[in-house]
């Protein structure tokens, strides 16, 4: 398989653009063997709100948020042409081989095996990387609504610049919040997976990354080059 | 088993009161064999919003909303003392017998058997009644944030009055939206289950209904008396 592509839930804020992206993904799947992993989006936001009100146990909040990924995955299944949702890693390759875009719903695997810690440090970013490691896929794309990881929060600082490349080790030591979760760099290092943070509003960037070409994005490289 | 008790997701709007209710439920479970079925609440609201934006297929929206019940069930599991969540109807009686409050997470049963139609006419109300029918429980309590079913919407009409009792057949013919879903009266008729719409802000009413005593609520009676 060529790549795991996580579709961030925030992209659902702009339905028309998300539909365009999903149609393009289906086209890319004709050339590349891809697996779609859903983000949590609005559902994860509801869990965060409830967590604030009820001080949920880590395991409970984590499970609720993972179910949010299943929910968004079901939505993606409707809008990615020629796709099929599955709970089984074993289905993924078979679907791809017959030309169907596999959408992996993570709840059953996560609840059964509990391979990752139960905290907000682990979100759909880490789960996408974990799926890639399980399927021996060397590339993960985190498709979101920003161009990549910036030196500072670009919504607050006009002088923030896009980081085109950093190593997973550098990201581990990065002393501020980024658009990816805190556990991700550890997983990338362990599994030697390259990760690209890409803006889903520009599907051509996703295609370029799949083709191994230059694109506006952030590469989090497993190796140090 | 004595009763299926559905806890409406809207009760999470008032965390302190929901906690009080949940503590009381755990007490009631010492005297009565109860099964808790979660509502969908905020999660179902997110599905409704996405349905408006993406015009989801009935099956997709339904599944997403049912996962919302699982999510709220996990939360309830944290705040109902001495409770345990399960996907299996077969666990429910066993849990109850050893003094644990069973919380039924409906997704796996619903996805596997698809016993109810995939539409917004079927919500957690109907699913609670279906669980009761499967477990041969004759009483369902729909615990919500209003006193019961009114002659008119009480938020809009000052002269709305509480209906203390109506038959499932009468509810079928009721030509306006009520606080319960449209499919419910059919299910109650088929399974001959009595259903009580009760305000969860007054846990003593729930206890009264369990004890077969008078309480402020609406009884939807399966028979015509």
Provide a descriptive summary of the structure in words.
Chain A has 225 residues and is α/β, with parallel strands linked by helices. Chain A has helices spanning 15-28, 41-54, 58-79, 89-97, 107-113, 124-134, 168-173, 184-191, 203-210, and strands at 3-7, 34-38, 83-86, 101-104, 139-144, 165-167, 194-199, 218-221. In chain A, α2 runs antiparallel to α3 (58-79) and α6 packs parallel to α8. The two termini of chain A are 23 Å apart. The interface between A and B is medium-sized, with 25 and 24 residues.
Give the topology, please:
2 copies of one chain form a homodimer.
Chain A: E1 3-7, H1 15-28, E2 34-38, H2 41-54, H3 58-79, E3 83-86, H4 89-97, E4 101-104, H5 107-113, H6 124-134, E5 139-144, E6 165-167, H7 168-173, H8 184-191, E7 194-199, H9 203-210, E8 218-221
Helix pairs in contact in A: 2-3, 6-8
Report a brief summary of the structure.
Two copies of one chain form a homodimer. The first copy, chain A, is an alpha/beta fold. Chain A has helices spanning 15-28, 41-54, 58-79, 89-97, 107-113, 124-134, 168-173, 184-191, 203-210; strands spanning 3-7, 34-38, 83-86, 101-104, 139-144, 165-167, 194-199, 218-221.
**What order do the strands of the largest sheet of chain A run in, or round the barrel if closed?**
2-1-5-7-8-6
| Count of runs of 4 or more consecutive helical residues of chain A | 9
Distance between the termini of chain A: 23 Å
| Uncertain ranges of chain A | none
Q: Beta-strand percentage of chain A?
A: 15-25%
| Principal-axis shape of chain A | globular
Helices and strands of chain A: which structural class?
A: alpha/beta
User: What is the string of SSEs of chain A from the N terminus onward?
Assistant: EHEHHEHEHHEEHHEHE
